[in-house]
Amino acid sequence: MSAKRIWGAALLCLLVACTGRPPKSILSDEALLDTVERQTIKYFTDFADSATGLARERDKDRNGNIVTIGGSGFGAMAIIAGASRGYFPESEGIERLGRIVTSLERLERFHGAWAHWYDADSGEPFSFSKFDDGGDLVETAFMVQGLLAARQWLASRDEALSARCDALWKEVEWDWYTRGTDSLYWHWSKNHGWKMNHRIKGFDETLITYILAASSPTHPISRECYEASYKTSSYYHNGREYYGISLPLGMDYGGPLFFCHYSWLGLDPRGLKDAGGVDYFERNKAHTLIHRAYAIDNPKGHKGLGKDLWGFTSSDDPDVGYSSHHPGTDAENGTVSPTAALSSIVYTPQESMQVMRRLWDMEGMWGPYGFYDACNPSRTPPVVDHYLAIDQGPVAVMIENYRSGLLWELFMSCPEIAAGLAKLGFYYY
């Protein structure tokens, strides 16, 4: 390397060390991606609960030291990405995954499923809502997605820890959560039983739940369960066009963009089709581009929206706290969530980079764990300076998938997943 390049690299490192944010003028796209990925992963390392290793639900939590199961599944994948990138030693990544697995083994489970939240200090489940104090099958699926990626990554690094990940996955009683019917049910509580009575139906973020349930070598569900429940919701089939873009599945405008992210952190959408011929990469790309077109159209006249500021999903909000901001609803109030466009970089790389650079230019959007959770240029102040694990995780993981495909490669190397996809009528072309 020339002296000039060595000096430039040293200067960049110094600027990042001093400010956490190098000036935009010296950052290539690759350098910006690396900076955002590195800083975002810190949420799952520097800010993880020190005792359990699990991800805190948010950085400003009025409920105490609450950790999240789904967000920790995303975090496990982010830790793998960070160790693979050399952001910290591989041995540290293994140790962090070990702490997460040990905690998962100790926490109370409900027929193999974890609760949505736990109090990290007491180790007890923390109610997500009045009757939601027990097993949460969807959050469990997000965790298992991370555990299976970890199992594969650890296989050649720590065989015993890899086996413990495998044991946790095999102990989830997916079939029990059918209640003996043709549907999966989201919640069960030892205090309230099936009172929530929430069938898991799509098209939304829950697809991974059916795929894992069908793939389970110990407690599988049938294809009939998937066909009779997930695919029969009122917002499964669409077939309409929005801004000239056809959307085969999903609600109007596609719904919040996390539908394109949570199930797809490990599940590779590239070339994936189902028995009905839906191309899932193209479906998710269309969903993303519809959100961009909506921001350009900006039918409500919000300040700042456009081709370089778009992306609507569930996140914190300057007015009402946590809210879903997707188009076609009253909740769309001009709030843009960085996780929406940035986690879609695998579908729309150029368009997502435009948003990343706009966010980079915005005063106050950058913090200790990457971009803050949301912004709304129509509000004063415009930045919602909070962090949520479920928003940070997809940013880190999808940037890594865009750069290397690492998490897709690990998860898809599980033979059970290939069998489960085939069972449900999915195939790669």
Tags for this entry?
mainly alpha; 15 strands; 42% helix; disordered N terminus; Glycosyltransferase; 14 helices; single chain; 429 residues; three-stranded antiparallel β-sheet
Number of strands: 15
**Count of domain modules:** 1
> Overall 3D geometry?
globular
Largest sheet: 3 strands, antiparallel
The first-level CATH class is given as: Mainly Alpha
Order of helices and strands: HHEHHEEEHHEHHEEEHEEHHEEEEHHHE
CATH homologous superfamily placement: Glycoside hydrolase 144 (GH144)
The name of the CATH topology is: Glycosyltransferase
**Helical element count?**
14
Give the DSSP E fraction (strand runs of 2 or more residues).
5-15%
Distance between the termini: 42 Å
Helix content: 40-55%
Summarize the structure.
This protein has 429 residues and is mostly helical.
Explain how this protein is built.
The structure is a single chain. This protein has 429 residues and is mainly alpha-helical. It has a single domain (23-428), classed as Glycosyltransferase (Alpha/alpha barrel). Helix content is 42%, strand content 9%. It has 14 helices and 15 strands. It has helices at 3-19, 29-45, 69-85, 90-106, 137-154, 159-170, 207-215, 223-228, 280-297, 338-342, 349-361, 389-403, 406-412, 415-423; strands at residues 66-68, 117-119, 125-126, 135-136, 187-188, 237-242, 245-249, 272-273, 314-315, 323-324, 366-367, 370-371, 374-375, 383-384, 427-428. The strands form 7 sheets. It has a 3-stranded antiparallel beta sheet with strand order 1-2-3. It has a two-stranded antiparallel ribbon with strand order 4-5. Strand 11 and strand 12 (370-371) form a beta hairpin. It is globular and about 50 Å long. Mean pLDDT is 94; it is low at 1-11.
